[in-house]
Specification:
With about 400 residues, this protein is an alpha/beta fold. It has helices spanning about 20-35, 60-70, 80-105, 120-130, 140-145, 150-165, 175-185, 210-220, 240-250, 265-275, 295-300, 320-325, 340-345, 355-365, 370-385, 390-405, and strands spanning about 5-10, 35-40, 110-115, 130-135, 170-175, 195, 225-230, 255-260, 285, 305, 330-335, 345-350. The two termini are about 15 Å apart.
Length: about 400
């Protein structure tokens, strides 16, 4: 495969990776290792992982945006504000990319972008004769509906915009087979334009570590069992079912605590729930932590969980792969895309939204060290062989190269 000049139509701040940017960072890093020239709209890529810092000072614009997002006064019109912000940001993306393409002496072979509501790269592709590839991790309209991000009219507008913009890319990469079916049946996109490439894990960063050592580093007790959740605190994660499962777990395993790593719009609601059912002393909310430190929390735990609710687009959860890469047994919902737990024999699937069944599976693992170890070994082996970011980057490169050759 020849070397490609790839324009990533977006910005990536590698000093402060969040959950949503880890996937694209790892893919771009993998493409760069394969010898391709990656040009994001900002100039900060690639940089060493040692520079990751989740506590980095945010820009003034980001601080204002976060203040607006958490404002109770503006919450009733948050959907409209978000849509306006996305539109203004899209104008900025288009102008920045237009100037970058016009100024560069070497021609770009392909434009690569993570899915968002608007699609200005389509205009860029037409203006400059460059093929475009879009990576779709989920449907914006579905996420807006699940997070109650607008009234019926606004949700209809979001859906119409997305149905118009989605088919414009020359090729589309999706992270679940269910998403491919959905884009074909509801968006009219030909299956041969859609490639399924599931999420992966950084198997060098996410790997087994000594439990005693990492607990000491995190100031966690050695005489406790720990259950770990990592992710954005939003509705589809099903974290409330995890918290509601704690009393059942404690009845069998009293020396147990839950670590919830991440932040999001549901954080205060989850804190209140823990207080209501009198388990707040058993739940540790870490907030956002640096990307490099996330494996410490996974390795400090006995069991990791992904209690997701059902989504029609299915899941290819990044954190599930990272749990497994750390050699941890996982309890997850029986939702589309999480079947790899059964395929790998690396964990237990339970009915979504069933706190008692979730607690029963967790308790079973906490009480059986041999089963935990065996499932953890199975999980690690499966991810290393099938879900490394290197293998993901290779498959993405093939799609990008194919898009370029088809257009030319």
């Amino acid at each position: 495969m020849r070397e490609m000049n790839i324009l990533f139509c977006g910005q990536l701040e590698v000093r402060s990776l969040r959950f949503g940017s880890v996937h694209i960072y790892e893919v771009l890093k993998g493409l760069s290792k394969l010898g391709h020239n990656i040009v994001p709209l900002n100039s900060g890529f690639p940089r060493g992982e040692r520079e990751f810092d989740a506590n980095q000072q945010l820009s003034a614009w980001t601080r204002v945006k976060n203040s607006v997002y958490h404002s109770r006064i503006l919450r009733p019109i948050m959907g409209e504000i978000t849509l306006l912000w996305l539109f203004l940001y899209e104008i900025y993306i288009f102008i920045s990319a237009f100037i970058l393409i016009a100024r560069r002496r070497r021609r770009f072979d392909v434009i690569y972008r993570r899915h968002t509501l608007f699609n200005s790269e389509y205009l860029l592709a037409k203006l400059f004769g460059i093929p475009s590839v879009r990576e779709v991790n989920g449907i914006v309209a579905d996420e807006a509906k699940n997070t109650k991000g607008g009234d019926r009219v606004l949700l209809w507008v979001i859906d119409r915009i997305e149905r118009f913009s989605m088919p414009k890319a020359d090729r589309i990469i999706v992270v679940t087979p269910r998403l491919k079916e959905l884009l074909h049946s509801e968006y009219g996109i030909e299956p041969n334009r859609i490639a399924v490439i599931q999420n992966g894990a950084n198997t060098d960063l996410f790997k087994p570590a000594d439990v005693i050592q990492v607990r000491d580093e995190l100031n966690l007790r050695q005489d406790c069992s720990y259950i770990c959740f990592v992710g954005i605190l939003v509705q589809w994660q099903g974290i409330e079912y995890l918290i509601n499962s704690i009393p059942f777990v404690l009845s069998e395993c009293p020396q147990t605590q839950v670590i919830i790593v991440g932040d999001g719009q549901m954080k205060q609601e989850l804190i209140n729930l823990a207080q209501q059912i009198d388990v707040s002393d058993k739940v540790i909310f870490t907030g956002m932590v640096p990307y490099q430190k996330v494996p410490l929390y996974m390795n400090a735990s006995d069991v990791c969980v992904a209690p997701k609710v059902g989504l029609r687009s299915g899941y290819s959860p990044l954190k599930l792969c990272e749990y497994m890469a750390c050699g941890k047994p996982v309890v997850a919902s029986r939702a589309s895309g999480l079947e790899i737990l059964e395929d790998s024999q690396g964990g237990i699937l339970v009915e979504p939204g069933n706190s008692f069944e979730l607690a029963t599976a967790i308790t079973r693992l906490l009480q059986d060290k041999e089963l935990r170890n065996q499932m953890g070994e199975n999980a690690r082996k499966y991810v290393v062989e099938n879900q490394s970011w290197e293998s993901v980057a290779n498959r993405v490169a093939e799609v990008l190269s194919d898009a370029g050759s088809k257009v030319r």
